[in-house]
Amino acid sequence: MATIPVVVSVVILACLFGSESKYMVYNTSQTIVPGKLNVHLVPHTHDDVGWLKTVDQYYVGSNNSIQGACVQNILDSLVPALLADKNRKFIYVEQAFFQRWWRDQSEAIQIVVKQLVKSGQLELINGGMCMHDEAAPHYIDMIDQTTLGHRFIKNEFGVTPRIGWQIDPFGHSAVQAYLLGAEVGFDSLFFGRIDYQDRAKRKNEKSLEVVWHGSRSLGSTAQIFSVAFPENYEPPPGGFYFEVNDDSPIVQDDINLFDYNVQERVNDFVAAALSQANITRTNHIMWTMGTDFKYQYAHTWFREMDKFIHYVNMDGRVNALYSTPSIYTDAKYESNEFWPIKSDDFFPYADRIHAYWTGYFTSRPALKRYVRMMSGYYLAARQLEFFRGRNSSGPNTDLLADALAIAQHHDAVTGTEKQHVANDYAKRLSMGYDEAEAVVASSIACLVESPPSVGCGNPSSTFQQAIIETPNWFCLYYYAIIMCPLLNISYCPASETDLSNGKSLIVVVYNPLGWKREDIIRIPVAKEDVTVHDYEGREIESQLLPLFDAHVGIRNYHAAAYLGVTPRDAPIYWLAFQASAPPLGFSTYIISGSKDSGKQIRYRNTKNSVQKSVDVSYSFYSGYNGTKKDPQASGAYIFRPNGTYLIKPEVQVPVTVVRGPLIDEVHQQINSWLYQITRLYNGKEHVEVEHVVGPIPFEDGIGKEVVAKITTAMQTDKTFYTDSNGRDFIKRIRDYRADWNLQVNEPVAGNYYPINLGMYIHDDENELSVLVDRAVGGSSISDGQIELMLHRRLLNDDSRGVAEALNETVCSKEKCIGLTIQGKLYFRIDPLGEGAKWRRSVGQEIYSPFLLAFSEQDGDNWLTSRVTTFSGIDTSYSLPENVAMITLQQLDDGKVLLRLAHLYEVGEDKDLSVMTHVELKKLFPSKKISKVMEMSLSANQERSEMEKKRLVWKVEGASGSESKVTRGGPIDPAELVVELSPMEIRTLLIEFAITHHKLFDA
Amino acid sequence: MATIPVVVSVVILACLFGSESKYMVYNTSQTIVPGKLNVHLVPHTHDDVGWLKTVDQYYVGSNNSIQGACVQNILDSLVPALLADKNRKFIYVEQAFFQRWWRDQSEAIQIVVKQLVKSGQLELINGGMCMHDEAAPHYIDMIDQTTLGHRFIKNEFGVTPRIGWQIDPFGHSAVQAYLLGAEVGFDSLFFGRIDYQDRAKRKNEKSLEVVWHGSRSLGSTAQIFSVAFPENYEPPPGGFYFEVNDDSPIVQDDINLFDYNVQERVNDFVAAALSQANITRTNHIMWTMGTDFKYQYAHTWFREMDKFIHYVNMDGRVNALYSTPSIYTDAKYESNEFWPIKSDDFFPYADRIHAYWTGYFTSRPALKRYVRMMSGYYLAARQLEFFRGRNSSGPNTDLLADALAIAQHHDAVTGTEKQHVANDYAKRLSMGYDEAEAVVASSIACLVESPPSVGCGNPSSTFQQAIIETPNWFCLYYYAIIMCPLLNISYCPASETDLSNGKSLIVVVYNPLGWKREDIIRIPVAKEDVTVHDYEGREIESQLLPLFDAHVGIRNYHAAAYLGVTPRDAPIYWLAFQASAPPLGFSTYIISGSKDSGKQIRYRNTKNSVQKSVDVSYSFYSGYNGTKKDPQASGAYIFRPNGTYLIKPEVQVPVTVVRGPLIDEVHQQINSWLYQITRLYNGKEHVEVEHVVGPIPFEDGIGKEVVAKITTAMQTDKTFYTDSNGRDFIKRIRDYRADWNLQVNEPVAGNYYPINLGMYIHDDENELSVLVDRAVGGSSISDGQIELMLHRRLLNDDSRGVAEALNETVCSKEKCIGLTIQGKLYFRIDPLGEGAKWRRSVGQEIYSPFLLAFSEQDGDNWLTSRVTTFSGIDTSYSLPENVAMITLQQLDDGKVLLRLAHLYEVGEDKDLSVMTHVELKKLFPSKKISKVMEMSLSANQERSEMEKKRLVWKVEGASGSESKVTRGGPIDPAELVVELSPMEIRTLLIEFAITHHKLFDA
């Protein structure tokens, strides 16, 4: 056992391991030489945070029979390799791995690594927990996972990453460029995958490197220098791979041995450099020296790169140097070159003909939904955690934060991972949820118990004590506050309780939004004789809806599959009632047994009772299976249909209509594996369509990709609008790309785009908007029509590495059946120009549904002894209609991270696309704000510092064409009012004055 | 560029890299625990000195598409891994690699590594340049290559390897055990490959570990504790491979991550240990933790072994420790166990049914011959180097030593390497020869020029100056002394010179043997009118023999293939004459043109002119091609015949007989690809049969393995005798093994043995002896018959890794034809008990033929102005008939290494199997011996020190059955007489008194 000295002589180490050879000492000190072609060698590894193996398997290097990969080796071997020569450099990207490694390192190694980071030898770039996908994640998740990584880096190393490094995601979003790029403070953004037609044109025009304006609203104020690689993120062609056992020719420069080859290898290097220079502006080119999970023994790469730098520079035709994307970016900047402007985004992505990576927009729809649910829950849970007071060591929201962060990886929420890895992400989310649920329960318990003037969050309170002292705190139900995470499968033991013996069910309805809100809520109940009272004791209108077979089947199968329980008798009814809750607050409802004979359920069978101007239909595409000659199959990544088939009942099945005071439902069994419920809510003007899809049959040997088509008679001129990561809307034109003359070879797949918030189309009079409950793929293949892909079950792998067919099943008692998914679409028709308000506000409601907590009242009088309604903000205040609070989070140091987001783009709504403002004092009514610091989006540096460092790039063409972008002004420390211009997000770090008798005051 | 500090703090390093983990510090300090099952983990790598890649390719890690292997990585990564934890241990074996690495290391690394060797963390075992084969090498080569490695280790590290580690060779020889084991001073010998039937029995009887008496003559005085592994030299079954990307389950002990598996892995470990304990005596078992070219990133192995040691010892059921074969040997020794005795050897080796590794005894017969020729040449060249005085920096014999050493590797001379690797060995031998030839030429030039009383070797002499100052010394012909290395293909420009204009050809005939010797020599000449005079001016008898088409074809094709030259007109004749030369000396002969009409060549055609009591015939075995069901084909390793076919002319071809005063030759074209010449020499009583075999046809889809059968009518009762590495003879009985009840499944291949010197059979009256000119496989498949496999050409790989069919070709001008080999067998019949003398002395003559050097005399009178005869030893002295000088070599420090070998076994010859003695003073007549130190066989320690340390093992059964072994006594420093008992080899380090005016005095 070794003891660890705190003081370490790094110099000695460097000297010892730097002396590679007695006779061959390589000069690797070269920096940029102005007159020459500079080849920037950027040593890197690309470490997927889960793909073929789970994140932990990749980290420790287990399960190598699937893929030889061990991130621990990479980081372990990197340290001595960098110490051996101070000219060597490396970038590391994925913080999920880096943090796993970091927490295992001795203090001695940590000191050394801090010095390496400080000196720039080791540069942490991108810096999120993972290299998130850019199609399937919600922008709030992207911000959160980036913040998690960036703040760790800031705290441990005192540095802020300068570079966006999205080298592998399968297409690139506008939100990535402007929000997770420019607004984070990155100086440049690098990526590897753009459409093969686009790439060819850009090579030809030397326009792989651009200045990207990702946001119409923020324009050049949020632009970023962006680099698309000539091919991929690997070394250039010509044999420059140097992993252990790689077969590229090493530089054999020992004249005592056979096969001396220095001149041949220098020639290879120069040839590859000149070839790349030919498609690149300026005399700087970058070589990405590494690829997936390489540098397991870092020495093998550096040894060869040392030699290349030494001998190539001796040769003198080109200049080779160790570099990083930062050094490269600075070199590009200092070249004073003009760069083309790029707008919008890089979707969809095809890597060759018939290979559109648009299938993954929908792949694993259940996982995508789970991620989205957890995303909303995490937002709410952090609010409640703040109200109660954060507990760093006890249950908190960190585990969910971590699970959600990892789930944004470009092989996670994308659905392009192996099944066992998808299971791992789900397991992590589930564990994270469990801990967050404990936070939520304890916070609600605390808020219910304490008068607002006393508040929660005093760590010496008995609540806190209970948490700390309980070993298995996951299982604690604080004050019997119970959650029902499986409400989605109609499973809620708390609400299914027997209310016949005078017991009542307490429902605490929490609203995470910044506005007061009313919504119909639905809970399963076991009996029909129930009444609902509000917290003021008034009975309110409620409605019972029958639980149909489709839902009962889902409930029983999945409760058995996931909980291992066979539920008691299924509840017979859904009980629906309208609840309302204040901003960031809750209201309490009481469900009691009643002696009444129950509400009358009115329903009748009819064939056509709901008349609509909008037709909803379902089809499936048959997934191409691939042939020897043309092997590209439809799969987890790629959507390649070879036929389309309308889904219609073989026999005419009657439609069931349920009507009531709150909800009308139309139930249709479209076929044996597709069930649809159309819902209209009293007081809501949109249609909610719930679909239950699956198990998709495949016994006919045909993979199927199921779409919903929402059809109108509108003349939409090939044009539709899709959101970018749930934020900006981008105009799409069928069979068209703004950047090049599209050769159409996949008329369906090539028109698919990722949808996170929704889509809309319009004609001269109206617009049809559709909102979604998760990431899906969508398009408008025919004018007047919006189509959304709901589910996919395929029989073939599509040859992009995952090596599994996308054929999800759910197993219970050793029997596996195809995955059934349940989901909702929401649509509405508005007059032209008036749809944004619905899309934005209902979009927020879908993302942040009411959070329900249950308790039982047995003899006690809850209404008189407990807090029955609460708002986290000033009761007189709510956020402006065009602003959402996307983060409210207490940090470990007691400060609060607050993000406010303007929800509208410039010109999107005639009333709401305007500068607006939020009064901070009203948001924290019982606290005294002592300091507000505006931060970069990832909260790792002051905004003012970030702006000071921003590089101003020269762009081709007049930049005067852009109309002036306004942004909210500085925050007056006395007024504490935050201005927000359209699409602006402002990230604030808030400190409160500490009152004498409380540590944390909510 | 890093500068190198001389003083390095190893402690700091160890602490820095030893602290694997903040939370997991492993206790790896465990040593042997007496009461428990001790699992000795022996970390090792097995690095073939050439096999699928060349030695240099393996070292630098090039050509990885053939095999991922880089020895540089292993040694580079080993140093920090050992520094990280002082309990970690490693053994390194192959000095060819270690030396390549060592000479590239900085002084700082060298200091660290010396400390690691000193502390025992890094143990250098086996210690030869390679892990030599035990079937195909000559014992002198085995000694030389071991000495080369051992003396390097001694010089650099001051240590002597304790362990024989022959883990991969394909069967194990008696000479390895007693000579290269016990006589080298090893305490034990480890190996992996023994017959599968033998292994099964030994497991059952716990007799894998034995005390091996390899020599009948030296008995227990040369015994060695020997360990055959239970399976191979890899980790035990159960998943204990930890190379980068290996798929054994790692020990996942981080409770923060998923898949924690400590208990499962501990259970795996304990189960594997108990299983091995079940077949092993004592409570010590060894796990060979590594295999071919592993530890490229040593950290990956040690990290897991650290954990196993830590957790297994916490578990406590067995005791796990870092160990080495030395520690294991000591533990076995201290156990006081009794061990079975093993006699003879472990040949042949089959790893399963129908898989006898007896093909490689003959594979690549041309390479085997080249190695043997170079072996003899190296012995002679060192003698001449000594006479001239060694030049460390100029041309010397080191390169040949190195090439020969590497060629002894068990995938080199064995013929089991890929073709490009075989070419590499040949290239190295050729380069080594070229440099040695320069030494030989300069030495002969020097000896010819200087009167013996003056001597060569003064480094200030003009000869030396010429060597040092000439940049391209390879090409220098000192005093026009020219060699003819291609005499074997009848190509010798020097002797083919035009002698018509009064020029004469000088032939200096050097005899490397310690006895005066007479032999017929043959050189090609261009014309028939030549006479031969001896150095006293007397014309001596000579004979011209025609050069037949078979030889002319070989000459022209191979001169073009290897030299790129088309020879001038072929010589028409071989000129033969009888030469004699003194011990370690030369005589000069002069070939002149003559006006005579030339010698009459008498020859006639006949069908049957030579009557013999011995019949020589040729057959081929058809090599089995393998089927899907029974895939084991005959190949480079494995001999698996599926038929035997007599080779006879399709039409009766006339026999050509050439008669003369010195030689009678009978030429027979047996078929289109097999030519035979039977030779009888005047004054010699044996028959020499030369065969020219090839290109073996394979167009019929049948691989062929060609054998010569020498048939008598003797009743030999299944019994025959084969040599062990050219030294001891071992009795073999067909279809029988002394150690177990043989299940015969390959009645031919399973009776094959390696032959290096020869074979004999006998009946009650006579013995038939056959000697060979290279390593071959041989057997006696029928009573009265000896068969020797001469050549093999096969169409299939035999699935032992080389992945090439053994199908050798020789290419010239882009045309490749199957390899033709040329070789000789020598046989003779003696009365029973009298054959040894011929076998031993002619064996020496075959190994050490006359070395011929040529010059031209043009007008000068060579005989009067030059030294025309010379003996390196006292002219009145020659070695006893039963002693050979197998090493005479001047070392870099000026000392001389002398090895004297008794040539007879106990009881082998009634006169010569006796104690004999050598007078050292007579061997160095012009020098004064100041000190003689007797050394271990590999000359790395004093013999007396070695004997003092020798472990005395307890053996099963009475050891009193052995008759007393005598050995030569101590050498009296005044008398300087060396006694040698049968089979004894004595290794002496001799120092000479320095005379005032000469640095080196010969």
TrEMBL record, chains A, B:
GO molecular function: alpha-mannosidase activity; carbohydrate binding; metal ion binding
UniProt key word Disulfide bond: yes
The organism's place on the tree of life at top rank: Eukaryota
EC top class, as a word: hydrolase
Annotated Glycoside hydrolase family 38 central domain residues: 355-429
Keywords: Disulfide bond, Glycoprotein, Glycosidase, Hydrolase, Metal-binding, Signal, Zinc
Cofactor-binding details, from the entry: Binds 1 zinc ion per subunit.
Catalytic activity: Hydrolysis of terminal, non-reducing alpha-D-mannose residues in alpha-D-mannosides
Database matches in InterPro entries: Gal_mutarotase_sf_dom (IPR011013), GH38_C (IPR041147), Glyco_hydro/deAcase_b/a-brl (IPR011330), Glyco_hydro_38_C (IPR011682), Glyco_hydro_38_cen (IPR015341), Glyco_hydro_38_cen_sf (IPR037094), Glyco_hydro_38_N (IPR000602), Glyco_hydro_38_N_sf (IPR027291)
Cofactor section: Zn(2+)
Residues spanning the signal sequence: 1-21
A single BP term in Gene Ontology: mannose metabolic process
Glycoprotein among keywords: yes
Database matches in Pfam families: Alpha-mann_mid, Glyco_hydro38C2, Glyco_hydro_38C, Glyco_hydro_38N, Laman-like_dom
Family: Belongs to the glycosyl hydrolase 38 family.
Family matches, as PANTHER family: ALPHA-MANNOSIDASE (PTHR11607), LYSOSOMAL ALPHA-MANNOSIDASE (PTHR11607:SF3)
UniProt-recorded name of the protein: Alpha-mannosidase
Organism from which the protein derives: Nepenthes gracilis
